[in-house]
Amino acid sequence: MALDKKIKNSPNTVKIGIIGGGQLGKMIILEGKKLGIQFIVLDPDENCPAASIADEQILGGYYDSEKIEKLAACCHVLTYEVEHIHADILMALVEKGHSIQPAPTTLKMIQNKYRQKTFLLEKGIATTEFEKITTVVDIENYIRREGLPAILKSCYGGYDGKGNKVIRTVDEIEKAYQLLGGSTNELMIEKYITFTHEISVIAARGAYGEIRLFPIGENIHEENILRTTIVPARVEASVLQKAEKLALEVMEELEGTGVFCIEMFVDPEGNVLVNEIAPRVHNSGHYTMEGCNISQFQQHLMAILEYPLATPYLIKPSLMMNLLGEEKEGRAMIEGLTEVLQYDDTYVHFYGKEYTKPLRKMGHVTLLGHNPEALMDKAEKVKKVLKITGY
Amino acid sequence: MALDKKIKNSPNTVKIGIIGGGQLGKMIILEGKKLGIQFIVLDPDENCPAASIADEQILGGYYDSEKIEKLAACCHVLTYEVEHIHADILMALVEKGHSIQPAPTTLKMIQNKYRQKTFLLEKGIATTEFEKITTVVDIENYIRREGLPAILKSCYGGYDGKGNKVIRTVDEIEKAYQLLGGSTNELMIEKYITFTHEISVIAARGAYGEIRLFPIGENIHEENILRTTIVPARVEASVLQKAEKLALEVMEELEGTGVFCIEMFVDPEGNVLVNEIAPRVHNSGHYTMEGCNISQFQQHLMAILEYPLATPYLIKPSLMMNLLGEEKEGRAMIEGLTEVLQYDDTYVHFYGKEYTKPLRKMGHVTLLGHNPEALMDKAEKVKKVLKITGY
């Protein structure tokens, strides 16, 4: 349902609801406030990062249909910054005429990894091979046929590597099955592909169907958590072209407006395969805040508020590194902040989470520079100095 | 008094008090939230632009010493985004050990235009000629000696041209004197100089004495209200050098950390004269948000929180145009917003003020482009389409 023209001309009267009040929600709000937009956040934690700048917060969980209905009732457009939320209630709300972006049908589809992969397969989009798993015997059969290593995945609920288990030897099958709760959870198995690069494309669809891509970033994960995004990705131009083409193919098939992230693998032959889709702003797009003419957060707002999209371009090569909590838990503190702020083209973001714990995403740093190599050196320097630790 | 190191390493525990909750305060907060900083705003209007993102607001006027003391008591550093505030109470608070930046002594000095000019004169800084005025006869004597036109100014309280009156004929003397309340208000008179350009330098002093200048902007005023800032200023390189030198001379003499704006005139011979100093972030520095590697707001925070300053540079030539309310009063609406958002490198800011009235500063637009000429053309196009009007 199109937004009222009067509302669109008075952005300070627009109310956007966001399910999730983490750092992604916070950064959406920071952009929206430049236009005076009002935000209502649904999050169970009253100290969530977005709370300090949201106009209002509804305290509640992401599966609380009553609270989600309440949120929808008081905003012009509803969006989300998390994926594990009650998609059925969102679909019902769309039926009732609410604007929810990206479309809950897309959300519902990606929430189940097996359904997501099947969708890609059906649409003829290159992706890694996969198979549904019910019993340990299914895994054994798969491995006998396809070989090792393989990756066992929970179809629901995984993020940052949770819900995934790599099987490297036959001995590990039973343990992996138990770990992911195979007797009660829906599971799938994938070939563990050898890739040379992980890349991601942040893409947006506007209200009039236009699609815009951000420059493609290369992602480095450790312990399944994104550590670093480097832009432009250090792959050949032909790979970038394939990735863009693939991203456009995916975008043509997804429903709804807003920003999406399409994660891909590049194999040693230079083939590009879709790994996973997120119908939301994404950690690998944080670099756009300083590295591009428009941030992913602002582009998301342009899309869901039915304004025209910007055509993104890179101002300078960029590197984003996540600031994860070190070993020491407690109230969060950034060691080395003053030193790092002396470096040029260095932007520190600290999400405002009160407590740190190991590997918790507490903030990120964006570095701009002449080329990816120089940025990698600079990042090493920053990493040595800047530590999130408890006190 | 230096900030505690622990506090500086935990920016999410830092509390900054801001006197004034207008758009300047709002934009300071938007930058500070990237580091998770907390803000408490003192403003009499509960719907002021900063209110929607401040962590807390103290409702009160800028001369309410009790409320100012309350604000100081609950923050680590106190700053201000307006000039017409109770400077004496701020000076007393500094005596008691509070950190207030820039120094209230500087604020006190600039609040009285005669004192400000005398200060510049004493420090040997080039400025326009001026004289104190008490009676109509004083004005007559001045004009007999110096000629017309002259500009009569109230020493206190003027902004956006309020408190100024140009005298072009002898007949206007009495009227100007009455208009500015000469029998009760302190007045001064200045030679009305013919200038080819108005320019301004946004400068910052850090906690360790370092001074950093932003690229110099050229300002266009109409009806004494800033309409447009063009960066780089369209003056010769030698003029820019003189302006930088002059700005550094001024900065060496001012007290306190933070961002200052130094407004200057360029005369037909290419001489540069200081017109006015503002010890705060400034409308003519808004272009820095998109046009520079660091915004004036972030630089201000770096300074007052005793972090190192960045060295500002221009990403692309920039033009900032203010969005002032048109004739029609009422609830604010931006006609043409959707159209303008189609233009590339065009950034619309809307402060979130509910009501518009003629010439009220409701927002601004920053344009980036190849050169000032192209930007002027683009600005004309934007101006034709984008209107703030009431409904």
Automatic annotation (TrEMBL), chains A, B:
Residues 117-305 form the ATP-grasp domain. Keywords: ATP-binding, Ligase, Lyase, Nucleotide-binding, Purine biosynthesis. NCBIfam families: PRK06019.1-1, PRK06019.1-5, purK. This is N5-carboxyaminoimidazole ribonucleotide synthase. Its EC number is 6.3.4.18. Belongs to the PurK/PurT family. Pfam families: ATP-grasp, PurK_C, RS_preATP-grasp-like. Pathway: Purine metabolism; IMP biosynthesis via de novo pathway; 5-amino-1-(5-phospho-D-ribosyl)imidazole-4-carboxylate from 5-amino-1-(5-phospho-D-ribosyl)imidazole (N5-CAIR route): step 1/2. Catalyzes the ATP-dependent conversion of 5-aminoimidazole ribonucleotide (AIR) and HCO(3)(-) to N5-carboxyaminoimidazole ribonucleotide (N5-CAIR). Catalyzes the ATP-dependent conversion of 5-aminoimidazole ribonucleotide (AIR) and HCO(3)- to N5-carboxyaminoimidazole ribonucleotide (N5-CAIR). One of its GO terms (biological process) is 'de novo' IMP biosynthetic process. One of its GO terms (molecular function) is 5-(carboxyamino)imidazole ribonucleotide synthase activity. It is an enzyme of class 6 (ligase). It catalyses: 5-amino-1-(5-phospho-beta-D-ribosyl)imidazole + hydrogencarbonate + ATP = 5-carboxyamino-1-(5-phospho-D-ribosyl)imidazole + ADP + phosphate + 2 H(+). Homodimer. The keyword ATP-binding applies. ATP binds at K113, K153, E190, K191, Y192, I193, E198, H221, N275, E276. The keyword NADP does not apply. It comes from Alkaliphilus oremlandii (strain OhILAs).
